[in-house]
Design a protein that fits this description.
CATH architecture of the largest domain: 3-Layer(aba) Sandwich
Distance between the termini: 39 Å
CATH topology of the largest domain: Rossmann fold
Oligomer: single chain
Shape: globular
Largest sheet: 6 strands, mixed
Number of domains: 4
Strand content: 15-25%
Helix content: 25-40%
Strand order of the largest sheet: 9-8-10-6-7-12
Radius of gyration: 22 Å
Number of helices: 18
Length: 446
């Protein structure tokens, strides 16, 4: 099988970044690189889906890395983990060494899974601000994505299942493998049900994830976890604060202490990103506001500034998000000359400013939920699934079926144009199409 045939299989199978971003994997691998990094760091607190993926399918992980090597020509392969998963490195080192792969174990800190940080720690190379690992000869993929690559190329198996951690206000924290599109409430039921009367779901993670009060929403191909919290929890309130409130409070209370900048992981890598200067734009208008907003251009929304750094409880991250929106509207960006002047080497004390995961737990009131989410091998058979059409970066998929059509598990039910960035969507269960709406294609068993 040649390189292009493997890429075609990966695209046809609907393989995308399973760690959150959802970038189509066939596009990422269509390059020549020196180094492949398997991201098993599981950056977000409370999640265990990457750990369980590696424990359940180590052979597929190794095979997926071999395939990636064949496609990209990489001569180095590193599997990156955090200290909490050192036992995996110890268990599978002999298997990895047979293929010439090595493990890299990083401290239990946040955000260890950031690909810019991983590439720097593993290779010593700094990805340019706003850049991608390819620019320094690397490709980084989540371990579940790599497992899906193996299944796609060797078995023509599409992405119709998803590893997902269910934790927080549930009877039992666990990790499941469920059909894509399974409703949140079904996953919660497998975890023994709720332990709060007013649940809100954090999708993806406590730091970078969104919130959903709707338990009928589906598990998408890029969701890593469902963290259920009561609606009066600090995190839920913080993430649901309206723009009017966080801008008004930031306008009146920011004292320019600069801790948001001094603890920013990308600032510490040398990027021209300074949230405390972005906060100043709340006091400005016109060109001055636009210039201050440029300090937000390379924010990746890791939420360290808001959730950990700010002593006033302000929200620099959302101010940065709003500033980036302003930059897009005005078509503004740093000039090449500015970049040459502003980009620095990594900060000499950056290691001392990494945030231990236990600090995140204590600061955000998550210590009661610090439970291992072991894998539950139960076969989950939802009566209804909703297959999102836009869980990948690029063009949303266009439905190829109509209401009333009977579909089979694995059948392509939506796709993108051949020359567009995106991937097909597959039916994850046998059944009948009952609805086609903005959030996806609904299929019910019959």
């Amino acid at each position: 099988m040649n390189r292009q045939q493997m890429l075609d299989k990966i695209r046809k199978a609907g393989v995308i970044g399973a760690g959150g971003a959802g970038f189509p994997t066939y596009k990422k691998l269509d390059a020549s690189v020196e180094h492949i990094i398997a991201n098993g760091a599981e950056c977000e607190p409370l999640l265990y889906k990457d750990r369980q993926t590696m424990l359940q399918e180590p052979e597929a992980l190794m095979r997926g890395l071999q395939i990636m090597q064949e496609i990209t020509g990489a001569d180095k392969v590193t599997i990156a983990l955090k200290e909490k998963n050192r036992d995996i490195a110890e268990k599978y080192t002999p298997m990895a060494e047979k293929h010439g792969f090595r493990f890299f174990v990083y401290e239990d800190v946040y955000p260890a899974g950031d690909e810019h940080i991983l590439v720097y720690e593993v290779t010593g190379r700094l990805i340019p601000p706003g850049g991608i690992p390819l620019q320094v000869g690397c490709v980084v993929d989540n371990v579940e994505t790599i497992v899906n690559i193996a299944h796609a190329v060797d078995e023509d198996r599409p992405v119709i299942e998803k590893y997902v951690t269910v934790t927080g206000e549930v009877q039992e924290a666990l990790t499941l493998r469920v059909p894509v599109g399974t409703p949140f409430e079904t996953c919660i039921g497998q975890a023994g049900g709720l332990t709060t009367d007013e649940p809100v779901v954090l999708t993806g993670g406590v730091m970078m994830g969104g919130i959903s009060p709707d338990l009928s929403n589906p598990v998408a191909r890029n969701i890593g976890g469902l963290i259920i919290l009561p609606e009066d929890h600090y995190l839920v309130k913080k993430k649901s604060t309206p723009k009017e409130s966080y801008t008004r409070i930031g306008h009146g209370q920011c004292d320019q202490c600069s801790l948001c900048t001094e603890m920013c992981p990308r600032y510490l890598l040398g990027h021209p990103l300074e949230p405390h200067k972005v906060m100043r734009n709340l006091l400005m208008t016109g060109e001055a506001k636009e210039r201050a907003s440029l300090w937000a251009q390379f924010c990746v929304e890791c939420n360290v500034c808001t959730m950990i750094a700010c002593p006033e409880g302000l929200d620099p991250m959302h101010i940065c998000i709003d500033a980036k929106q302003l930059l897009r509207e005005k078509n503004l960006a740093r000039t090449d000359e500015e970049m040459k002047r502003l980009v620095r080497d990594a900060h000499p004390v950056r290691k001392g400013r990494e945030i231990p995961i236990q600090t995140v737990y204590r600061r955000l009131g998550l210590t009661p939920y610090d439970r291992h989410a072991e894998f539950d091998p139960v076969t989950v058979r939802p009566g209804t699934v909703i297959l999102p059409l836009d869980s990948h970066i690029g063009q949303p998929a266009r439905p190829l079926v109509q209401v009333g059509d009977r579909v089979k598990q694995g059948q392509i039910i939506a796709d993108v144009e051949a020359d567009a960035l995106g991937t097909p969507i597959h039916a994850s269960i046998n059944g009948t199409v009952t609805q086609i709406e903005a959030r996806g294609i609904e299929i019910k068993t019959s």
